[in-house]
Amino acid sequence: MSLISKIRCAFTLGQGVLIENEALKETNDPILFFNGWLKKAQDTGIILPESMSISTCTPSGRPSSRMVLLKEVDSEGFVFFTNYDSRKARDLEANPFAALLFHWNILQRQVRIEGRVERISSAQSNAYFQSRGRGSRIGAWASHQSQELDDRQTLVERVKYFEEKFSGKEIPLPEFWGGYRVIPESIEFWQGKADRLHDRFVYQPTEKNWTVKRLNP
Ligand SMILES: Cc1cc2nc3c(=O)[nH]c(=O)nc-3n(C[C@H](O)[C@H](O)[C@H](O)COP(=O)(O)O)c2cc1C
Fold this sequence. Notes:
alpha+beta; Pnp Oxidase, Chain A; 9 strands; 32% strand; binds flavin mononucleotide
């Protein structure tokens, strides 16, 4: 381990001691707590701290994972955007449950979220779609995400086709593109500590609030 890694390690381990107070006493709201951790990750300057793995399963229980970007989080859940014909979307339409995973290495922190998944409204998807750069909006139209592509030139041609089609016009939301919300059934916060004696707290929703319990590391 390099000296800088050791210093970082010692620093972040020292930061971890607050978790019990933070998680159990200061707030019983894991979304607020999550936002605090995300903010902390953003403050470290790491690239794309909002990137997360999402695992889906086929109806026969075969899992697959990939990274996506968290775009919204509130009391309703965690929202990301994708192609509704993609492999992950096909899984989710047939088996609407997912597991999200954040890992902020520099902070020795991990957050696991599991829950049911639903599409957000097309009005909400459109609001986000229209906030994206023109290139990304054209890209969404051009990519048949997860399907086989003969060669890169075919994709480049499709981009050109949609650039011409929408030249000087608004780019509409493709009907095959939009957001999903993961509605949490559990949210686990993991803080790395010395000697593998890590802190783990798992929140689960009740009718009106959340329960929180500590797990063995
Ligand atoms: C850091 C990172 C962020 C990504 N964000 C997204 C995203 O927000 N939405 C998306 O559809 N794909 C995103 N991707 C690409 C996916 O990982 C994946 O390749 C794609 O969605 C196709 O997955 P699927 O075939 O399993 O559906 C991202 C990849 C990386 C590495």
